[in-house]
Structure formats: C-alpha cells, structure tokens
C-alpha cells in the first residue's frame, strides 16, 4: 500500500500536535482512529514514524525523513485547491498566525477581525508564544517576528516599523521621585522581561536605554503593560498599545523612545499558493494601517 495524501495529512497533524488527541481535535477525528491510521501508515512504510512517551509523540528518524515530503504534498494539495477555486473568489480554510505577545494582543485581533469580516469562510487563529515559531514544523501557517530570520526555508517581508516608549501611569508618577534624565530611572521601580526568557535580542529594550535592573518581570508584554497601568512602575510600552492604556504617559521621550520592526515570515513553498499570498498581502496592509492609526492616536 502506498501512502495517500489523507495518510500524510494525518501524519502531519500528529507531528504538529504532538499527540493523538491534539491531532484528532484538529482533524475532527477520534484519537483512537488517528492512532489506527498512523499504525496502518507505519505498517505500510515498514518503519516507525513516532517515538511514543508519556510526554506525547515525537518524530522518529523515519518520521523526520518523511516530514518534508508530507509538507510538499500539503503544498501541492493547497495549490490544486487554488487552481480549482480560482483566484478571485472569497478566501476560505484555516489560517494560523503566530506572533509575539504584544502584536498578538494589541494588533492582530482587530486586523484579523477585519479580514475575517471580508472573508467569512476563513477560520483565523492567533497563537501568541514568547519564542520564535518553527514554520518548518508548521506551528503556524505564517508568523510575525521582531527580527528577520537568516536561516531556514522561509521568505521574509518587512511589514513596518513601530515605536516603544518608556511610560508609567499618572498615579505612579505623582508619588515617584523626579524624572529629568535617564540617570534618574535608577531611582524607580522597573517593569520588564525576565532576563533569561528574552528570546530575541530585539526585545532587550531596557539595556538599550542603560537599565540593568528589573524589579517586576514577566515573559508577557501584556502582564508588563497591565503592571504599568496599575501604577507599579516604569515599563517600555509599545506605541500601538498606548491607546489601550489611557492611564499611561510617556516619559523622557527624547531619550527613551526606541524603534523596532515587524517582519512577516512564511514557509518558502507558500509562495506558490495564491491563497496564502493573498492572505499575507491583506495582513501586511491591515497591520500597516492599524499601526498608523494606533500610533497616531497615541
């Protein structure tokens, strides 16, 4: 028996989900059925594709070798679907977008809401993770990053620049020591990332303005943002998040404002899938417009 696309589709779901239950949920299948299909595929290929453990399913050596071929079959299926449906019709299907916490919370909800309203047959998913996404394992269909990757089979497009501001709530500033220069920051409580959980050098905001101590730390930008809103101290806040925190006031803007960039990262093979390219173009346009709107409002 040869492996069919349906077999490979199930294999990919287990490889990405790491368990039969996660794959079954994504496929709309019972986990036991997924297990039987994987066992049948392994028997047909005369090789174990996964190593099973209490932590879940990890790819075996044979599974790792099969993975790129299964991904190629997936791309061919998507391209075939594009060809049949035509390029001018409404978009449909599932799209999972990976993004860092700040973008996922303060930009993507409204951006993807607008795209979803225009294309109601699209099922849109946002995955907010405090780390770099592995597109080769299809953790997401496309990802937004704060730096451009230099390795892997991916394509990269700059979306736009954005700003970060040292900010605090009026409640905090009314009772805190004076802030006339960056040197005065050492007299204040500082909110920031847990140092050993900064997964990209572009997120090391505080060291760029000469701050080495963090009093209140989290790997989540949203937690940092809410600490600042509650008057806990000074934090680097995304300019596009400022309208969501009207209590926050930028401080020392000439000395502490930083510029960063968002990048759209896609699997290299997706360039041949018109549907993915259309969605990517819509996202880039909507993110640029939303950044301009929010930073203008701030």
Automatic annotation (TrEMBL):
Pfam families assigned to the protein according to its UniProt record, in alphabetical order: HTH_1, LysR_substrate
Record carries keyword Cell inner membrane: no
Name by which UniProt lists this protein: LysR family transcriptional regulator
One GO BP: DNA-templated transcription
Domain HTH lysR-type: 1-60
GO molecular function: DNA-binding transcription factor activity; sequence-specific DNA binding
Homology family: Belongs to the LysR transcriptional regulatory family.
SUPFAM superfamilies membership: Periplasmic binding protein-like II, Winged helix' DNA-binding domain
Gene3D superfamilies recorded: 3.40.190.290, Winged helix-like DNA-binding domain superfamily/Winged helix DNA-binding domain
Keyword vocabulary terms for this entry: DNA-binding, Transcription, Transcription regulation
